Amino acid sequence: MKVLVATGSKYGATREVGEAVAAVLNEAGFEVDCAPAHEVTGIHYYDAFVIGSAVYGGLWRRDASALVREHSEELKNRDVWLFSVGMATVTTPNQEFEEAKELTALINAREHQRFDGALDYEKLNMGEKAIIRALNPPKGDFRDFAAIRDWASQVVTELRAVAAL
Ligand SMILES: Cc1cc2nc3c(=O)[nH]c(=O)nc-3n(C[C@H](O)[C@H](O)[C@H](O)COP(=O)(O)O)c2cc1C
Q1: 62: domain CATH number?
Q2: Ligand 1, atom 29: nearest CA belongs to which residue?
Q3: What are phi and psi of 126, to 5 degrees?
Q4: Which of 119, 132, 148 to mutate to test the pocket of ligand 1 (most atoms within 8 A of CB)?
Q5: What percent of the chain has pLDDT over 70?
Q6: Domain coverage including residue 6
Q7: Phi, psi angles (nearest 5°) of residue 68
Q8: Is the pLDDT at 129 greater than 80, yes or no?
Q9: Which residues make beta-bridge pairs with 140?
């Protein structure tokens, strides 16, 4: 079974989450490609997908969002897991990741999972720094790789069930 893990990431935190998911799938014996969403040229080769994105201003990165939207008809008929990486402290209270929920419904994805991300103030551009200065959230790396690997293991269990059908 061939699986594509694709991510939309600006500063690399989400890309590394995708790589961790891909490593778990790979160890479980699946044939896995892991790529930035903007480098994905076609999806026909793959049986299943894990597509994730960093969240900025409540929205997915454009490349990851476009990957889902442009291939929504094909993805509706495949097994797809989505994940979002964000910082609860940067979002407006109770922000519900509206776009991620919309994309989940659009392709009837199996699940949408949310993970805490990382914020390296020094890497940000001037506009981003201004936003972060105003919101003053905790800075640092809040990714929980044990939780990420646990989730990937659940995906493995479900993929094995699909492969056995
Ligand atoms: C300007 C800015 C806006 C952000 N907006 C949100 C947001 O709306 N919701 C959220 O959960 N996280 C938000 N974040 C946090 C990022 O999603 C988080 O830092 C993420 O790990 C970045 O991933 P990346 O390194 O893959 O780009 C924001 C961060 C910045 C710098």
Answers
A1: 3.40.50.360
A2: 56
A3: -65, -45
A4: 119
A5: 96
A6: 2-164
A7: -70, -45
A8: yes
A9: 119
Q: What is the pLDDT of residues 16-74, one digit of tens each?
A: 999 999 999 999 999 999 999 999 999 999 999 999 999 998 899 999 999 999 999 99
Whether ligand 1 lies within 6 angstroms of the CB of 86 is answered as: yes
How many distinct structural domains can be found in the chain?
1
Task: Categorise residue 108: left if φ over 0, alpha if ψ from -120 to 50, beta otherwise.
Answer: left
Are the CB atoms for 13 and 117 separated by under 8 Å?
yes
Range with the poorest average pLDDT among 58-72, 87-101, 104-118, 136-150 = 87-101
* Rounded average pLDDT over 119-145: 93
Q: Is the pTM higher than 0.85? A: yes
> What average pLDDT does the segment 78-94 reach?
82
| Ligand 1 centroid to residue 123 C-alpha, Å | 12
Tell me the one-letter amino acid at 122: E
Helix axes 145-164 and 13-27, enclosed angle (nearest 10): 40
Whether ligand 1 lies within 6 angstroms of the CB of 64 is answered as: no
Nearest residue (CA) to ligand 1, atom 11: 86
Look-up of token digits 């026909």: 44
